[in-house]
Amino acid sequence: MRGHGHDLTSIVDTALGLLDEFGLPDLTMRRLAAALDVRPSALYWHVENKQSLLAAIADRIVGEAGPATGVAETARAIRRAILSHRDGAEVVIGTRALALGSDPAHALLRDALARTGSADPSRDASVLEQFLLGHASLVQQRIQAAAIGAYDADPRDVDERALADFDAGIRALTP
């Protein structure tokens, strides 16, 4: 195998770079293997399939949020991490829909909610996560549409304009 010495961390690093550069539709196992200078079959020593790779990418993206002090701050940090990557919302929401990965967003939200005295922090985190992922997906789609002129806004302003609605949603959903 050419370019040996890769591990899951280096594979996810490279895949995340390709995601940011080319987007999800063009993140293929063949492109990833070429970027790593390995044969595509070599990737399967580290990931079972592309969905497993996407789950690892989703975990990495959300992991960039890190812990925050309160529920709203935690939700904002997760949202910011997701939106900081091209197609990040699509990767994370697709992974959650299939119950893949370790779901760090749920864990971060659950822990923040537990600190507030939530009666059922796991259930509340699930509801909050669904809102967060749906909102991030909507914002990301609007940013992409604005970039090609299909949504009437400057792509750089879409996220900022949607933040007040996001904050209102978090307040409505949290104790």
Task: Itemize the secondary structure elements and their pairings.
Layout: H1 8-22, H2 29-36, H3 40-43, H4 50-63, H5 71-83, H6 88-97, H7 104-116, H8 121-147, H9 155-173
Helix pairs in contact: 1-2, 1-4, 4-6, 5-7, 5-8, 5-9, 6-8, 7-8, 8-9
List key phrases describing it.
mainly alpha; Arc Repressor Mutant, subunit A; globular
Word description of this protein:
The structure is a single chain. The chain is an all-alpha fold and 175 residues long. The chain folds into two domains: 8-47, Orthogonal Bundle (Arc Repressor Mutant, subunit A); 66-173, no CATH class. It is built from nine helices and no strands. The chain has helices at residues 8-22, 29-36, 40-43, 50-63, 71-83, 88-97, 104-116, 121-147, 155-173. Helix 5 (71-83) packs antiparallel against helix 7. It is globular and about 50 Å long. The mean pLDDT is 94.
Query: Structural class given helices, strands, pairing?
Result: mainly alpha
**Helix count from the secondary structure assignment:** 9
Shape: globular
What's the average pLDDT? 94
In terms of DSSP E residues, the strand content is under 5%
| Unreliable parts | none
**SSE string, helices as H and strands as E:** HHHHHHHHH
